[in-house]
Amino acid sequence: MAKLKVVHYINQFFAQIGGEEKADYPAELRVGEIVGPGQALTQQFGEDAEIVATIICGDSYFNENLEKAKADILAMVKEQAPDVFVAGPAFNAGRYGVACGTIAAAVQEELGIPAVTGMYVENPGADMFKTHVYIVSTKNNAAGMRDAVKKLAPLAVKLGRGEAIGASSQEGYMPNGVRVNFFEKERGSQRAVKMLIKKLADKPFETEFPMPDFDRVDPNPAVKDIAHAKIALVTSGGIVPKGNPDHIESSSASHYGEYDIAGVMDLTEATYETAHGGYDPVYANEDSDRVLPVDVLRDMEKEGKIGELHHLFYTTTGNGTAVASSKAFAAEFSQKLKNDGVDAVILTST
Amino acid sequence: MGSRDYMVITNNPLVLDRLKETRHVVYRDISYEEILREVRDRIHEGHTLLSHPLSGSVKPNETPYKSIMISEGKGEVDEASLKLIENAIQACRKFIFKSDLYEAPVYDDFQIIDLTLLESGMASADAG
Amino acid sequence: MRLEMGHIYIKDIQFAAESKIEDGILYVSEEAVRAVALEDEKIKSVSFDIAKPGESVRITPVKDVIEPRVKVEGRGGIFPGVIAKVDTVGEGKTYALKGMAVVTAGKIVGFQEGIIDMTGPGADYTPFSKTLNLVMVCEPVDDIKPHDYEKAVRFAGFRVAVYLGELARELTPDETKVYETCTIKEGMEKYPDLPRVAYVQMLQSQGLLHDTYVYGVDAKKIVPTIMSPTEIMDGAIVSGNCVSACDKNPTYVHLNNPVVHDMFEQHGKTFNFVCHIITNENVYLADKQRSSDWTAKLCKMLDLDGVIVSQEGFGNPDTDLIMNCKKIEAEGVKTVIITDEYAGRDGKSQSLADSDPAADAVVTGGNANQVIILPKLDKVIGTLDYVTKIAGASEETLREDGSLEVELQVLTGATNETGFNKLSAR
Fold first, then answer.
1. Cβ within 8 Å, pair A195-C341
2. Subunits in contact with chain B (3 or more CB pairs closer than 8 Å)
3. What residues of C act catalytically?
4. Distance between alpha carbon C399 and the CA centroid of its chain, in Å?
5. Which of A264, A330, B95, C268 ranks highest by number of CB atoms within 10 Å?
6. Chains B vs A: touching, with 3+ CB pairs under 8 Å?
7. Which residues contact A305 (CB under 8 A, 6 or more apart)?
8. Are C419 and C259 spatial neighbours (Cβ–Cβ below 8 Å)?
9. Residue C69 pairs with which residues in a beta bridge?
10. How far apart are alpha carbons A26 and A18 in whole angstroms?
11. Which mean pLDDT values do the consecutive 10-residue runs of chain C (426 residues) have?
12. Mapped to the 3 state alphabet, what secondary structure does C143-212 carry?
């Protein structure tokens, strides 16, 4: 069988160009070169695959010039026409992990070339991309390189050959929400007995089916005096002033917007729209009050049902936006809301 | 709970035929999933779910019939009922639709099974 | 309670003029077993066939699978309250014919499910491809109601299994295993330092074709209760369940309940296996609440430290499973649950119809929606007519080359929720 062609993506640090001071290093293609961790990968590939080119890009450069970097790297990969694309491993390097996830997902989705990366489970890139590309779970620093390539290389070969990919526990990738059957060595009842023995002894055990994530928030006590309360509006429905002045992304938003509605009685087709790319925008664009009910709250303000409507609203698009990003946005603007003396928030979603 | 304290939401003509004299039967000529939605709407109005919406091991989209018991009376929206019915509606989508692929006599069997599942719930309700 | 289980290994099954077991070969007089099956006037005719592991044979639609046993010493008989008179079983001496099963088949309802392939990819998933199977296809009298037909086939299978078990009464077992449990007080004294554990078994109990019987009692009419774990080995629990082939428990699974057997392996070593708790899976929500309240209460009254909870069926029982788990955990009793998944053909859907963070220790029997291609096999025992109309089958089911494209859910026992198999998912 012919060796599979692999293009390998790494950052400036693993290419031994430099640390943070060189993080603005633009994307560079080195055809025929095996760089840094590419050596360990090559060794692990054996006769199955070879790295035909290495792409190096600084982490700051990638993240700060996202669209250009992505386009440039995609063009480089396309030119090499590999059977499989490998990024990283990034271990616990946050920006590197996000870059690996971003570019691996883009190669897969836009070029149709299978891609795989690896990182530590707590790397923010993991949560953002584990449902988009296979991400091999690694240790949290480069000392785990050997262990990482042991999982990364065989998975890359399988992907390159278009072979069926087994369950996450067999292949070493992070659970990606797709349930895959396989045969265990022991029958289920034996596994249950062993799990029970561990649980009884307070030893760590691993469930075979993690319950869906419950990020439950206990509701706050009811607002005592709503007629005098200051109410703010927050939405993940992407309502923005016409023209989307802050360029909030239609999906996977990287930031949120803060807009002043002092004196605004009604959101009209001429003044507001949605930036959201995850639902049919027609009705939201026609009348953005449908998502962000400014008109109704103005009425209630007038009728004395609420104290006042806060003059700022906060907005982003919930579509594909990482939970970690959403949490960070909220942590920031919640503080602002508190400082502004807001008593309660109406959070609308779509 | 007596036989007049609950109503049956169903799309099963056999259930209507057998129970209309003795029970409050709401018959709708709609799909399995639409029955679940009908029940959900009534839960929103304050009715309580009394029988499990996914009763029976015959899968949604396999059998076209579903009969569900809810309370005759209304109160506050019951969260447990709401969670069950929402989960059930979601579960429908997992199964390939094939309720329209069977030969005529098979539908009689589906109707009987749905009726007996319902009867086992009613037996509990009537006894209490 | 102390039960000695004698295993008699069956190496082959052959039809013969006289029924007997000799040198590990089961000789079956077709005439005799036919007479046993036809004792019920609701059965018009019955045909017998033998299917062996590796043969190009497909059995469908399967209703039940039963292991023949005979009670040699001690109180009661096999299938108490059903075939034998009501009497408490689970002690003394019982022989089982290992390596074989009686398989009942028959189209009880038009969407009847259940396939056992003796070879090919399907054979990897159904545990009953590994047993020598004496298959009986029962035809009912005309115009029979489904519930009468179900009952007639259920009983015919038990009668034939008991008839075959009787052939072993005077034999010497190839292997003997002893299962012994203590009373509550004895256990406390004997194993003062071991954690106290029990098995909570949820029995399918939703109505026609979804029933389970305990000493002949319909399980939907029970409140949770405790049993000695040895009672099931004499057939205290039998299946009247024909729906959801992949995750229903045939009588064979009740007799050989894997949780009971694997917990016995640890009994007196890593924990004290206190008892077997049975509960049900009724459709009426107040019944669910009562039953789960009771299982949790029993766990507490028995001072348990841990339990394993097993499930049977799809959808409705997910709610019982989660209620049991939540309430038992709330009593401070550590819980492991066994289930299976319906995650859709692509594996991306939510697997269970209910969930709770308390269920942090789950064993899964795999995704029942996984698609599998079953090649055409040389011989069909039963009828294929309805295969295209059974759960998990779609309009493309019967492909041009005669192979079947189906979901795992059509295969008998494929995703069993008592942990009978090695199949899992992540």
1. no
2. C
3. 242
4. 31
5. B95
6. no
7. A226, A227
8. yes
9. C96
10. 13
11. 97 97 97 96 96 97 96 97 96 98 90 90 98 96 90 96 98 97 94 97 92 96 97 97 92 98 97 98 96 98 98 94 97 98 90 91 96 93 70 59 87 97 97
12. CCCHHHHHHHHHHHHHHHHHHHHHCCCCCCCCEEEEEECCCHHHHHHHCCCCCEEEEEEEEECCCCCEEE
Helix, strand, or coil here: B64? coil
pLDDT tens digits along C205-263: 998 889 999 999 999 999 999 999 999 999 999 999 988 899 999 999 999 999 999 99
**HEC states along chain A?**
CCCEEEEEEEECCCCCCCCHHHCCCCCEEEECCCCCCHHHHHHHHCCCEEEEEEEEECHHHHHHCHHHHHHHHHHHHHHHCCCEEEECCCCCCHHHHHHHHHHHHHHHHHHCCCEEEEEECCCHHHHHHCCCCEEEEECCCHHHHHHHHHHHHHHHHHHHHCCCCCCHHHHCECCCCCCCEEECCCCHHHHHHHHHHHHHCCCCCCCCCCCCCCCCCCCCCCCCCHHHCEEEEEECECEEECCCCCCCCCCCCCCCEEEECCCCCCCCCCCEEECCCCCCCHHHHHCHHHCCCHHHHHHHHHHCCCCEECCEEEECECCCCCHHHHHHHHHHHHHHHHHCCCCEEEEECC
Token pair for residue A71?
């386009």
B50 touches C: beta carbon within 8 Å: yes
**What amino acid occupies position C386?**
Y
Q: C269 to chain A: which residues are within 8 Å by CB?
A: none
Sign of CA dihedral A108, A153, C425, A121: negative
User: Quick count: other Cβ atoms within 10 Å of Cβ A26?
Assistant: 14
Closest CA to C335 of C279, C296, C290, C288: C296
Who's near A96: CB < 8 A, 6+ residues apart?
A11, A13, A59, A88, A90, A125
User: Which residue matches tokens 């039809």?
Assistant: C15
Contact across the interface for A187 and C334, Cβ inside 8 Å: no
Give the relative orientation of helices B104-127 and C146-166 as an angle to the nearest 10 degrees: 90
The bridge status of strand C20-22 relative to strand C25-28 is antiparallel
Q: Give the mean model confidence (pLDDT) for residues B92-113.
A: 84
Alpha-carbon distance of C426 to C414, in angstroms, equals: 16
Interatomic CA distance for residues A255 and B25, integer angstroms: 53
